[in-house]
Each structure stands twice: as structure tokens, then as C-alpha cells.
Amino acid sequence: MKHRIAILSDIHGNTTALEAVIKDAQELGATEYWLMGDILLPGPGRNELFELLSSIPITATVRGNWDDCVLEALDGEYGLENPQEVQLLRLTQYLMEELDTEYVDWIRSLPLVLKKEINGIRFSLTHHLPEKNYGGELRPANDTSHFDQLLDDQTDMAIYGHVHKQLLRYGSKGQQILNPGTIGMPYFDWSPLQNHRAQYAIIDVEEDGVTNLQFRKIAYAYEAELQLAKDKQLPYIELYQELRRNDNYPGHNKNLLERLNQQYGYAKDVKEYFDLKWIYERDFAGSFTRF
């Protein structure tokens, strides 16, 4: 039996790009979808993003580092001293003002690594490394020894996300390693290759193995996505505008984040929101549970 698998990764809350990718994959006859993590943020996608994902046959999903950031914010692991933590708290607050908690429960249930076997081909799926879904070990130009961490003798092809670059390479023993790129958050080191398109990959697995592999780049209305974010009052809209128009997300710039946090009172927002949430759960539910 032929399987045509669409590999989706790093949506980052960009529902407009996801919709365009799903439409393209459906037109190409995808029979199933694998999701490689980083579903949420910094884009505005909330319930509608999960509803879109629910419309397709997803047969494998792993948890990304941004997904973990949402859980860590909800679990009280962040404070107000670090401007990046304030950013994640405020973006998580934005999510939870609308997001159904069943989706949070689903994210909590996701593994870091998942094994699949299709027509005798053994796949290992991760967001980054099997025991660590963050870091820079698997940047495309790194040495093969880093990528061998994805592979063992029971893996024929490893698929990962995280680095936002489409990639096909081999481990030191000859197994294949694939990265589908990013749907919602492209980065480009070489400016002539820059474009705003959403990235994903399709692989065909037939009786005699992997017979076809396509890297796809799909045009979508990125200005409409930016306007949607503005209409939905997404916090840190300046950062999202930079991402959508220049394929650059300055979310690691602590000086910029500190200025925005002060300008908009984001630290005060999250302190009040999470403190109020604590009081609500304690007083009315009898015990405190963060979602």
C-alpha cells in the first residue's frame, strides 16, 4: 500500500500559512500527516488552529520546545525578572484567554520521540534530539556526529524540526535524515534565498520503500496573517510584524523585550492574570491546579 505522508513542523501559531499548506497537501493526495512540534506562538492561532488540525488525519505528533514553554508558563516555572520569561507568560496569557484547555491537555500528552514503521521503513520522529527538544546541535551546517544522535540501528530515516530549514542528509552509517522546514517562522542565512512561503515536505512510502520526497514552499497571504494578529490584539505585535515582513523574529533581544514590557505594562498584566488565576482555583475549586 502506498502512503503519501505530509510532514508538518513549526507552525508557530500561523493559521493562515497552515491552511495554505493543508490545501496543497490535500491537492497532492496526502493520506496522512505527521506533526513535528512547535504548534503555538508567537502567532495568534488558538482554537481555530487546532480545529484546522482536527480536520486532517494526523497519525503522529511530537512535542516542541515552544509547546513546552506554554506548559512551563502555566506550571509556574517563569518569573518577572527575565524579559523573555515575561514575554512567554504574556503570550501564554493571550492563548489561555480563548484556548480550550483540552488542547493544553493534548499537548501535555505528546512524547518527545515517536517511532513509526511504514512498509518496513523504520522512522524516528523528534522535534530536536530524542531527549531534548531545544538547542543548536542539529543546525544544518553542523558535523555529522551531531546528527548521528538521531539514529540507532532500529532507525532507517530520522525526521526532526526545530531549526526551520529544509534539509536532507545522511548519518555516518547511511541512514537518511529529513527536516521539512517551518510552516510559520522561516529564517534565512543567505538573503537571495529568502521568501515568505510556508515550508513542508511530502514523502511517499511504497512496498519497496521511500520512493519519492518533495520539499514544498507554499505562497500564502502573509499580510493577511499579520492583519489577523493585529485584529486579535496579539501582544508583541511589533515582533510579529518583523517576522512576517522580514522573516526575522527578534524575540531573543532582551533590550527590546524590556522596552516593550515597560511600554505596554506586560509584567503587570501577567502578574495580575496568574495571581488571579491562583485565587480563583484556590477559592472556588478547593485546590490549585494550573489547567
Task: Give an overview of the whole structure.
It is a single chain. With 291 residues, the protein is of the alpha/beta class. The protein contains ten helices and ten strands. The strands form two sheets. It has a five-stranded mixed sheet. Strand 2, helix 2 and strand 3 (58-61) form a beta-alpha-beta unit. The longest helix has 19 residues, at 266-284.
What is the beta-strand fraction? 15-25%
What is the CA–CA distance across the termini?
Answer: 42 Å
Number of strands: 10
Uncertain runs are 278-291
Strand order of the biggest β-sheet = 3-2-1-9-10
- Main beta-sheet strand count, sense and barrel state: 5 strands, mixed
SS-based class: alpha/beta
In angstroms, what is the radius of gyration? 19 Å
SSE string, helix = H, strand = E? EHEHEHHHEEHEEEEEHHHH
Keywords:
five-stranded mixed beta sheet; single chain; disordered C terminus; 10 strands; 291 residues; 10 helices; 20% strand; alpha/beta
